[in-house]
Amino acid sequence: MVAMNMLKLISRWCGMTLLLLVSCNKQPSTIPIDKMFTLLPSDYTRLEFENNLIDETKFNVFKYRNYYNGGGVAIGDVNNDGLPDVYLTSNQQSNKLFINEGNFQFKNITKQAKVGGTHKWSTGVSMVDINGDRLLDIYVCNSGNIKGDDRANELFINQGIGEDGIPTFKEAASDYGIDNRGFSIHAAFFDYDRDGDLDLYVLNNAFRALSTFNLENNLRNERDSFGGDYLYRNDSGKFVDVSEEAGIYGSVIGFGLGLTVSDINNDRWPDIYVANDFFERDYLYINNRDGTFTENLENMLQHTSLASMGSDIADINNDGFMDIFTTDMLPEDDYRLKTTFNFETYAFNEKKVNWGYYYQVPQNALQLNNGYVGSTDQITFSDIGLFAGVAQTDWTWGVDIVDLDNDGFKDLFMCNGIYRDVTNQDYIDYLASEDNIRKLIGGERINFPELIQQMPSTPLSNYTFQNEKNLTFTNKTKEWGLDDLSFSNSLAYGDLDGDGDTDLIINNINQSAFVYRNEADSLTDNHFLKVKLIGEGLNTYGIGARINLYCANKQLFVLEQMPMRTFQSSQDYTLTFGLGKNTKVDSLIVLWPDGAQSKFENILVDTMITIRQEESYPPPQKRIEDIALVFREITNEFPLRYTHKENEFIDFQRNPFIPHKLSTEGPKIAKGDVNGDGLEDFYIGGAKGSPGKLFVQNESGVFINTNEKLFEQNSISEDVGVSFFDVEGDGDIDLYVVSGGNEYSRQAPAFMDRLYINNGRGDFSLSKNKLPKFYASGSCVKPGDFDGDGDQDLFVGSRSIPWRYGMTPTSYLLQNDGLGNYSIVTEQYAPDLANIGLVTDAEWVDYDNDKDLDLIVVGEWMPVTIMQNNNSRLIDVTDQVGLGKTNGWWNCILADDINGDGRVDLVAGNLGKNSKIRASLTEPATIYISDFDGNGLSEQIICYYKQGKSYPMLLRPEIVNQMPYLKDKFPTHDDYAGKQITDIFSQEQLKKAIVRKAYSFATTVFYGTSNGTFRQYPLPAEAQFSPVYAIMAKDFDDDGYKDLLLAGNFYGAKPQFGRYDASYGTLLKSIGGESFTPLSIQNSGLTLTGQVRDMVSITWKKKQRIIIVAKNNAPTQVYKIKF
Description:
Elements: H1 2-14, E1 18-21, E2 29-32, E3 37-39, H2 42-45, E4 73-76, E5 85-88, E6 96-100, E7 106-108, H3 110-113, E8 122-128, E9 137-142, E10 154-161, E11 167-171, H4 173-176, E12 184-190, E13 199-204, E14 230-235, E15 238-241, H5 243-246, E16 256-262, E17 271-276, E18 283-287, E19 293-295, E20 304-305, E21 311-314, E22 323-326, H6 334-340, H7 346-354, E23 360-361, E24 365-372, E25 379-383, H8 385-388, E26 396-402, E27 411-416, H9 425-431, H10 434-441, H11 448-453, E28 460-461, E29 463-467, E30 473-475, E31 485-486, E32 488-494, E33 503-508, E34 514-518, H12 520-523, E35 527-534, E36 546-551, E37 555-560, E38 564-565, E39 569-570, E40 575-580, E41 584-591, E42 597-604, E43 607-612, E44 631-633, E45 669-672, E46 681-684, E47 693-697, E48 703-706, H13 708-712, E49 718-725, E50 734-740, E51 754-758, E52 764-766, E53 777-784, E54 793-800, E55 812-816, E56 822-824, H14 826-829, E57 838-845, E58 854-862, E59 865-870, E60 873-876, E61 888-889, E62 892-896, E63 905-909, E64 925-930, E65 939-946, E66 949-952, ...
Parallel strand pairs: 4-39, 20-23, 35-43
Antiparallel strand pairs: 1-2, 3-34, 4-5, 5-6, 6-7, 8-9, 9-10, 10-11, 12-13, 13-14, 14-15, 16-17, 17-18, 18-19, 21-22, 22-24, 24-25, 26-27, 27-29, 28-31, 29-30, 32-33, 33-34, 35-40, 36-37, 36-41, 38-39, 41-42, 44-76, 45-46, 46-47, 47-48, 49-50, 50-51, 51-52, 53-54, 54-55, 55-56, 57-58, 58-59, ...
């Protein structure tokens, strides 16, 4: 080891890029050191291991679904010589143990150590000192459905180390009561009850055919001895099954693949995350500190991955809260996506939710821990996998969150590939061919070996992502030398050569195991600190301890001692902290699993320290700090309960190509004093079949529902826009309600807007003749005196043409004659306005300070559009003011002086950047709208860029089902995959299409300048996690600067796009000028759940400022502004 480190050091000094490899039997060879990782050949390392699937004729994927799941790997020092050793499991051959002899050379001691295993299909492996003798033992999970094998898990007890340095082991699983005979995948040892010994969770995965389940009959609460998980409590060395009494599910539907233990909520008690494959959702067990757990996933996560496989938990952003990563199978490149993948329908997803399987999305999930909600111990998570750029990595098994370059931020490594593409869509079509169906029906013999050989086999690169320290990651797989094609399943990491960086061992199928040496010590200037924990009693390695390390400027680095994690793997017990450029550790605190702690200060870097639990002390009394929250939720004490009830309607059954529903855009909310009593009242819109409500505030602060019968008369309509204003100039406010949605045909009466006239006392009547007659699926109404005659004119924006998404609806400019009668004057005063686009929102504002009102309009596929008022004529000056090519999927607009310079600024809510579809000036998202198949109906083909090329989002089944003539052009999925829109449609067809583009999906502030133009600045990352539908600008914390409150979410997206649910409301605190910093949920007090569509600030009881939050298909929430 010393020699190798010296060689690497000399190489760095001299600029050498070669590593000299010398084995006993071969001439010296060299390998260039020019990337972060070097793949070392087995003829040098002597770590010769291949998990070969020997014979697929007798036992294969048709008989055992998990046939290609691969083996596991564990790293740990089994002979206590200071060098981490390696154990790898095999599915059909002997498992192997290799001791580390230094300089990255290993020795196979399997036979001498007696740890090869006696069963026929091994999976996960854990290294643990189960009996407290300070010797690592090995626990091996077994599975498979092989005749004559009982699958009993094996526990190899370390009997001690011989004079030759080789340990020997004795199998004793039954003696300890943990010879579980289920279909085991992995196991984790940890002290869940904090009694000083190690307990055990065993993750099982049954292979029962999915077609035999009736999903309507959810089996989650029915226990299964072979497929269900087990929690064993250690009672004086004998393990007792306490699964049911502890609250652990044990059903056959679990299909567990990933198991990770971590202190999720920072209460110093270990919690459990289980990643489940197929239709069952994941489990998140929160430790109740009394020997039981509460499965609480649905109260903490908004959705999970669909086919969850591996999982890991660590702090990715160094905020002291643990984040969760789960892997799935969504391919990144277009070819793999369209040949190996399919999406469940929206309707089926809704059924699964109703059957109790919760919301699941087919992609990797990076669940960002949002921290505590206010002063409570409640924790929430937001899936930002798409925002972070790590959601699409193909068939991914294990994931490890580990700092690979020692820069102080944890990176991601993912094991990829399945030996045969069991989801290849052409192969699936072949299996379902008439010939095969005939054979099955006729009872003919099926040649399974032949079927297996026809299944494609595609090796894939693993994925490595570098943490960019801003909640995004960059793919460094190739640059760091980790792009070797393989069928990789599991990974373990540890510092195998003692140089302070993390090396990797990967178990592959039908391929040699990978041994990657990390070159960070020679290729970077980053520092490290290694920590070895020595625990007390039966937990000799301090499993469950958490280490908080602090460097200059309060930099926090956190690691947990929890080696058994992710997919079938166990990591080395010596913890390595990457420290970046820090040259000193200010302090290090160990939080031991029994509640005690140890603290050290002023620690030198680039070394290893050993910390003993016996030297710990009781923690100091925790001070309860009073957090100055900006908001306090008062929903439960507010004297109003209102729930918006959306009607059931699935737009995709009528418009299969649209990206999202257009029928769930409400409710909007408007405030005003309707009866002249000086108190603020409000109207909140309803949905089809559920009329809107007018709530009038009385002196005691109670809100009375009024005019109910009047609004019920128009319950057929969907309310999407509302506004109070004085129609007739009689001193009271009237009510305009915009009708919208996507349920009706274009000339349906339900699309007629409504104008309700106030008699001055808050009693309204429906006007029958003040509005011109027009039918539109609208979005908004905005009153403003554009012609300067003293009355309120109107802009009425239209959202879409029903059943013709993407085609331009007609929006309207309505002029008031002074008596409250309106006429359409669009062509006369604003001809560009009629067909301005798919409008979602607008604002009247004098942006150019010329004493008249200009109109700002936003919409889907539209730029932020400025209609300048020039002598009452509205002229489009969007390009002139610097807003050309700001096209996005804008949902709302706010006009205000945000930076305090006296000029109008704009804040526009967009789709956000946490989406599969991306857009930029050079790689815009594009939609083509035309009747491509000539059947009289328009189709919408959305294209977006992936890996430098623009591809249609539609999969082959979608496009050929709608346009059958394309079946002949693309008879297979392989024929269709990788095709651009110009390969699918002719130039003549495309010339006839309406083409729209989006160049940005970022929620953005546009600052007005002295020359009348605007400068655009995307808001911080936290504002981009979900679509924004509501924006409020106020000095919420009373510091003299306007802050921004944003809210949104949208659940009605087509399954290909995912589910936009990552926002809990975002408070951006202004720190002066044009800078904002997001406040955590703990400091803001916000937890806006659901799909927020609008917010309004009103005065309650004449003194309290409150915010009422309107949400689609959910109750309102109410917050008090504390300042």
